[in-house]
Write a structure and sequence with these properties.
alpha/beta, 8-stranded mixed β-sheet, 3-stranded mixed β-sheet, 8 helices
Length: 198
């Protein structure tokens, strides 16, 4: 809503950043993270064309569990929505990108995030690991995209995500209803969940 802070993790070409900017208005802030240089250039143009430059800050980091650098895998497709810190099968190359955690970014900028969207093509677990303090302290609304096949390539699984969500006091909801462990872990294709606090 107006005045809120929205973290757009996996900004792609800016569709969520623009919608977020419309919702938070001039008194709010949107931070959109997109590590792929070409895609980030489109994101920046999208923000400018929609008159959101004063609200949306485009960031070059890949959000992970800690600050540093990491190998970021690229499919080679222009404006691909599948590039990732996870070693995806479709990758034709990789680049080195800066990384930062949500906890570090929030502390550094002294902001209070109200809403977080996470769509990181298989690197979900690392993003969550780096958001522990923010989740427990500020209890933001969270929308999480899960990519089971890409997660396996990264050495992770849905049970790992389930465990960290429950440790944080979060329950995934799909279509307005809570999910249970067996249902959650049985998914094999991309699915989205809202995370609700216990």
């Amino acid at each position: 809503g107006p005045g809120d802070v929205f973290l757009d993790i996996g900004g792609h070409i800016g569709l969520f950043a623009v919608v977020g900017a419309r919702l938070v208005g001039g008194s709010g802030q949107v931070f959109s993270f997109e590590p792929t240089p070409f895609t980030r250039s489109i994101l920046t143009q999208t923000v400018a064309l929609n008159g959101c430059k004063d609200i949306v800050e485009v960031r070059p980091e890949a959000v992970s569990s800690m600050r540093g650098e990491a190998e970021f895998f690229d499919t080679g497709d222009e404006a691909s929505n599948a590039n990732s810190l996870a070693p995806i099968k479709a990758a034709v190359g990789s680049i080195t990108v800066p990384t930062i955690s949500i906890d570090e970014f929030v502390e550094e900028r002294q902001i209070l995030p109200n809403c977080i969207k996470i769509d990181v093509e298989g690197a979900e677990l690392e993003v969550l690991r780096g958001a522990k303090e923010v989740i427990k302290k500020f209890r933001p609304s969270i929308r999480l995209g899960l990519h089971p096949q890409q997660m396996v390539a990264n050495g992770d699984g849905l049970k790992d995500v389930w465990d960290i969500l429950r440790d944080f006091g979060l329950t995934p909801h799909s279509d307005g209803s809570p999910m249970y462990l067996d249902d959650f872990c049985s998914k094999s294709d991309l699915f989205d969940v809202n995370l609700e606090y216990d």
